[in-house]
Design brief:
The chain has about 280 residues and is an alpha/beta fold. Helix content is about 55%, strand content about 15%. Strands 4-3-8-7-5-6 form a 6-stranded parallel sheet, with helices on both faces. Helix 2 crosses helix 6, helix 3 crosses helix 13 and helix 12 packs antiparallel against helix 13.
Length: about 280
């Protein structure tokens, strides 16, 4: 289905998602076409929704904080932003699972927004990075309308600042909002604005900087084999080494444990079913 020209009836007939849980966090087996169609549909309806683009970092942040995991699991859509999570979904019985990568989903949604005349908003980054990202979008999608661009300060906002930014977004005419302030801040921010902004929001992390050319993306072949994290570590070792050294080994260990427990549980169920099916019928008195 071409989301840029899909009818409302086609959008509303999207198949139900079949979720799986990785270390307690929900993952939805979606695609770029499916995710974009859902977001466009919500935008047309003027509905508050939020989309989380999950990777190992997000899963482990949720593992360490039940409160954050609850915020993620309450999202309207949780995509497999990281290749390791695609492998997890496949091992949990979704062989068709594919990656839905934040920077690429951003472009899919922007293409649909431009073609369907849905203004977008940008929240995050710096004033300069937003300017460069906006220029990139306008060169790639000439019809796109960027209704609002806000670069909040790199510190907790005051109540007055948050109220002012929220008012600016609400009155801008934006129908879809891209939030790029990093995990876990962006997911918490989106959740806290439920009922205050009537538009779908996507937590897109570093997508603004990637497309503005400020941060180099890993080569496609490294992404395909699940080593994008290594490339990013080499690019920003001081900022990222603690994250990867702490999260990645624990994720592998804990997920192997999950698979072993689920396999054992399945085996027990199968043995019980076999005993029941082969047992002699009970005499009725």
């Amino acid at each position: 289905m071409d989301v840029a020209t899909a009818s409302d009836a086609e959008l509303s007939s999207l198949a139900a998602l079949e979720p799986r849980y990785v270390l307690g966090q929900r993952l939805d087996a979606t695609t770029y076409t499916d995710a974009t169609a859902r977001i466009v549909d919500w935008a047309k309806r003027g509905e508050f929704r939020y989309v989380c683009l999950s990777n190992v970092h997000m899963v482990m942040e949720g593992w360490d904080s039940a409160e954050f995991r609850e915020i993620i699991n309450a999202a309207d859509l949780i995509t497999t932003d990281g290749v390791p999570l695609v492998w997890c979904l496949r091992s949990l019985g979704v062989p068709s699972a594919v990656r839905v990568y934040g920077p690429d989903l951003t472009l899919h949604v922007c293409a649909a927004a431009a073609q369907q005349q849905l203004p977008i908003g940008l929240y995050g980054g710096t004033a300069q990075s937003l300017k460069e990202f906006a220029a990139y979008l306008q060169s790639r999608f000439p019809a796109i309308e960027i209704a609002c661009s806000i670069a909040p300060p790199f510190r907790p906002l005051t109540v007055a600042e948050d109220v002012a930014y929220t008012k600016q977004l609400a009155e801008s005419g934006a129908r879809i909002l891209f939030v790029g302030i990093g995990c876990p801040k962006q997911e918490i921010w989106m959740s806290k604005h439920r009922g205050r902004l009537n538009m779908p929001m996507l937590g897109v992390g570093a997508a603004f900087d990637f497309h503005a050319g400020r941060v180099k993306q890993a080569p496609a072949w490294l992404q395909a084999i699940g080593l994008e994290w290594l490339f990013r570590l080499l690019m920003e070792p001081r900022r990222l080494w603690r994250r990867y050294a702490w999260h990645n080994p624990r994720f592998v260990l804990f997920f192997i444990g999950q698979l072993l427990r689920e396999h054992k549980g399945t085996s027990v169920c199968q043995e019980d079913s076999a005993r029941i099916s082969t047992s002699e019928p009970i005499d009725k008195f």
